[in-house]
Each structure stands twice: as C-alpha cells, then as structure tokens.
Amino acid sequence: MFYGGKYDAQNRYDEWNTTQIKLKLNNKTDQDILAWIKKHKHGRDTSVQGAIKSLIREDIAHGNTGMPGSGGVVRRTVE
Length: 79
Fold this sequence. Notes:
By secondary structure, the protein is an all-alpha fold. The chain has a domain at 25-64. The chain is built from three helices and no strands. It has helices at 6-17, 31-42, 48-61.
C-alpha cells in the first residue's frame, strides 16, 4: 500500500503522467529568449509554460514537423 502523504502521491502522479524538459540558456547569446521569458514570467496574460506550449502547437498546426530535431527551423549562417 502506498502511503506517505500528499507529496508522495503527487510525485507518483508526476512520475507516471508528466515529462519535464529543461533548457540551458546562455546569458550572453540567448538574451533575446531570456527577455521574452522574463516578459511572460512577470506578465498576467499567460504563464511562460502556457506561452511556450502555444508556440509549439502553432508550429505543429502550420505543419512544421520536418525531421526530428529540426523543429521546422531554417538555420542561416552569416559570413
């Protein structure tokens, strides 16, 4: 029998039903992304998580599901 209180039950639920994804962002090269996150973090319209999910779902809806890992992103190099 499982018993250990609320947090054990929550941990079991999370283990079976959720996936966490971590981003490691560079303070110098990812300043634009960090600023976007900060704006959404302190805004009242939506959470950062909700905003990121919306962007991903919009990308999926537009059919940008190319090769795994590409995310439909066009990479350009500057010479």
